């Protein structure tokens, strides 16, 4: 009888290998499903929530939460989509928000260490959710594992880069007394390092290690080039950019980035490279090497007609910040530049927020509505900035037929229109020279914005609707200077608008017991996580709940004109403190991460008492602090403490 002992194993091997391949394919498909992601997230969340209470660094952080509270907050945010887009086999780098190329997958790298790959995924989710200390701790632990060291270092470097950029931006406003870091006034945070303390050098060190460990990974070089650019290390940025370019197919994005990084080192070469990258659009796009200057300097050179109206001024702002059962008195001195009216021989109004390019070669620094660190962010035709030079790339300006027009800005936000833009008219509204000059307004301006101009006595026949979405060139452009800027209100702007809109403002008196809670409109990018309990407390304290976003301007003025206390989450609705009595009291609920004197500066100009109840911040991570919407949670004991002093 013939034996089959030698052929049976071979015949059995073929189907077993096929079945194994089938299982592998099925496993890969399962890993990509939403269900698997959700199950894995909740498994890792349960494990981490139980052990994080024993980690000293986390217990010293702002997110020192109970096990149940951490689990519920993170789970709720995940189910709302925050972090649910993270892939198990590919890191999401928050600093690469605007990068066209997709990050390099690392699935095959962690095949032999799936558990480490799972924790990489979870660290990435926590970073997206704003649990920075938890994410950092996990990445540092994973960086000690050789199988995933380079991936963990890139993830950690991305996190530290984000925090360093935030710290740089925040400090630009903090040193001017505009932004508040209440954590540094609390005993338990006195010796704790928060994101406010991050430096570019920390993140650069980690990312440098990452590219040394894995030199052929494009993501590491991209992150390092980005970070050196943010830090102003132009040659290092260019070196990293070249390494990145050698690993990737060149795109328009990368060619533009390369030109922008060369510009601070060699302006002529940077301009030439940008023009080459724009070659297919030549004729209707242009590149300008502009000098960044102020109107005063330009006027001193007789390059424009300049007339100073008011001297520089200051405003003291006092507020009480409540956090962790303590009252923190905050005193800031805000400084405002001299106001003026300028007439340019020729000027271009640049897109988005109306910076001025004068005489085709001067970018006017004081035409920006934010600090210099945010110049390219809010005027995106500015591609690079180095010292007093700017690389501008945009379409050729559309010529406007009329000359001698007035431009006051075109921001559609309620606060910015009322206190940044319209008050600029105060510098020309009573001038015989400018009384009949046409005023440029956005073709997309809301009806309430036009009605506000009418209330100030501006006849409709003077308005000229134009499209500000592209550069607009105007001869003999008249531009009153910004009064309010950099997220704080100028006292002259506050008083001008109050006198014009509330004629009986001097006689307003608070009505005892009239307490208003200004609800935030639906769809806000920021939410208060314990809003239900907070609203219940304010309801028991006798507050009426209103949504001013659904009211006309007259209705808002009437409602606020005798308010005793105005409260609510920070937002544009607090601009309405403008219409309240001087003896009104303001209570603003805010995330610790984004507390600024935007609305307290209004109250300070009117002599109103300001209170800020700070809550735990849960950022919705964005590469820039200024745009990082934060969910938050205020402590009920802090509300009680505030009520004891205010009501």
Tell me the β content: 15-25%
Count of individual helical segments: 21
Provide the gyration radius in Å.
28 Å
Question: Mean pLDDT across all residues, rounded?
Answer: 91
Helix content: 25-40%
Largest sheet properties = 9 strands, mixed
Structure commentary:
By secondary structure, this protein is an alpha/beta fold. It folds into three domains: 40-215, no CATH class; 285-312 and 336-487, no CATH class; 502-646, 3-Layer(aba) Sandwich (Rossmann fold), CATH 3.40.50. Strands 1, 2, 5, 6, 7, 8, 9, 10 and 14 form a nine-stranded mixed beta sheet that branches. Strand 6 (356-358) and strand 7 (362-364) form a beta hairpin. Helix 5 runs parallel beside helix 7 (149-174) and helix 7 (149-174) runs parallel beside helix 9 (218-231). The longest helix has 26 residues, at 149-174. The chain is globular. Pfam families: Glyco_transf_61. Keywords: Glycoprotein, Glycosyltransferase, Transferase.
Jot down its keywords:
39% helix; 647 residues; Glycosyltransferase 61 catalytic domain-containing protein; 3 domains; globular; glycosyltransferase; TPR-like_helical_dom_sf; Rossmann fold; eight-stranded mixed beta sheet
């Amino acid at each position: 009888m013939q034996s089959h002992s030698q052929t049976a194993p071979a015949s059995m091997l073929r189907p077993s290998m096929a079945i194994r391949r089938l299982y592998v394919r099925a496993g890969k498909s399962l890993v990509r499903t939403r269900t698997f992601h959700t199950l894995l997230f909740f498994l890792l969340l349960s494990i981490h929530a139980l052990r994080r209470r024993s980690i000293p660094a986390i217990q010293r952080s702002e997110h020192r939460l109970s096990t149940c509270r951490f689990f519920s907050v993170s789970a709720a945010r995940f189910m709302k989509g925050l972090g649910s887009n993270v892939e198990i086999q590919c890191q999401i780098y928050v600093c690469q928000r605007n990068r066209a190329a997709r990050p390099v997958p690392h699935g095959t790298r962690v095949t032999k260490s799936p558990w480490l790959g799972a924790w990489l995924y979870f660290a990435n989710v926590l970073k997206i959710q704003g649990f920075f200390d938890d994410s950092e701790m996990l990445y540092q632990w994973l960086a000690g594992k050789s199988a995933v060291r380079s991936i963990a270092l890139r993830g950690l470097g991305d996190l530290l880069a984000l925090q360093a950029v935030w710290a740089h931006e925040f400090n630009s406003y903090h040193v001017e007394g505009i932004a508040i870091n209440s954590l540094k006034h609390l005993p338990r945070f006195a010796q704790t390092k928060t994101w406010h303390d991050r430096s570019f050098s920390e993140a650069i060190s980690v990312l440098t290690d990452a590219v040394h460990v894995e030199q052929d990974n494009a993501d590491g070089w991209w992150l390092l080039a980005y970070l050196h650019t943010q830090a102003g290390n132009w040659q290092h940025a260019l070196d990293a950019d070249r390494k990145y370019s050698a690993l990737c197919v060149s795109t328009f994005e990368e060619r533009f980035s390369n030109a922008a990084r060369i510009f601070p080192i060699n302006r002529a070469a940077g301009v030439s490279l940008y023009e080459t990258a724009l070659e297919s659009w030549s004729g209707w796009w242009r590149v300008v090497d502009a000098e960044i200057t102020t109107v005063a300097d330009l006027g001193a050179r007789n390059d424009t007609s300049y007339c100073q109206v008011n001297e520089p001024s200051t405003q003291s702002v006092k507020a009480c910040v409540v956090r962790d059962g303590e009252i923190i008195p905050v005193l800031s001195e805000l400084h405002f530049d001299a106001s003026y009216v300028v007439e340019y021989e020729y000027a271009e109004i640049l897109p988005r927020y109306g910076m001025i390019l004068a005489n085709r070669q001067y970018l006017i620094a004081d035409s920006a509505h934010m600090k210099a660190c945010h110049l390219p962010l809010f005027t995106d035709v500015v591609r690079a900035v180095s010292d007093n030079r700017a690389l501008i790339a945009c379409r050729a300006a559309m010529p406007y037929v009329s000359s001698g027009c007035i431009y006051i800005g075109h921001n559609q936000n309620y606060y910015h229109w009322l206190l940044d833009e319209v008050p600029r008219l105060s510098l020309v509204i009573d001038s015989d020279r400018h009384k009949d000059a046409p005023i440029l307004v956005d073709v997309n301006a809301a009806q309430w914005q036009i009605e506000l101009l009418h209330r100030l006595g501006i006849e409709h026949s003077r308005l000229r609707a134009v499209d500000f979405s592209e550069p607009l060139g105007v001869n003999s452009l008249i531009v009153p200077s910004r009064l309010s800027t950099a997220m704080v209100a100028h006292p002259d702007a506050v008083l001008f608008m109050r006198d014009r809109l509330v004629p009986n403002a001097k006689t307003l008196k608070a009505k005892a017991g009239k307490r208003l809670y200004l609800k935030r409109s639906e769809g806000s990018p920021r939410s208060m996580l314990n809003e239900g309990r907070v609203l219940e407390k304010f309801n028991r304290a006798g507050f009426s709940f209103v949504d001013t976003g659904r009211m006309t301007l007259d209705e808002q003025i009437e409602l606020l004109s005798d308010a005793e206390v105005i409260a609510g989450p920070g937002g544009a609705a607090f601009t309405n403190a403008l219409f309240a009595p001087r003896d009104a009291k303001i209570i603003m609920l805010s995330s610790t991460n984004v507390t600024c004197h935007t609305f307290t500066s209004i109250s300070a100009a009117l002599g109103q008492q300001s209170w800020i109840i700070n809550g735990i911040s849960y950022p919705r991570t964005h590469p820039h602090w200024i745009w990082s919407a934060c969910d938050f949670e205020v402590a009920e004991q802090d509300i009680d403490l505030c009520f004891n002093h205010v009501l």
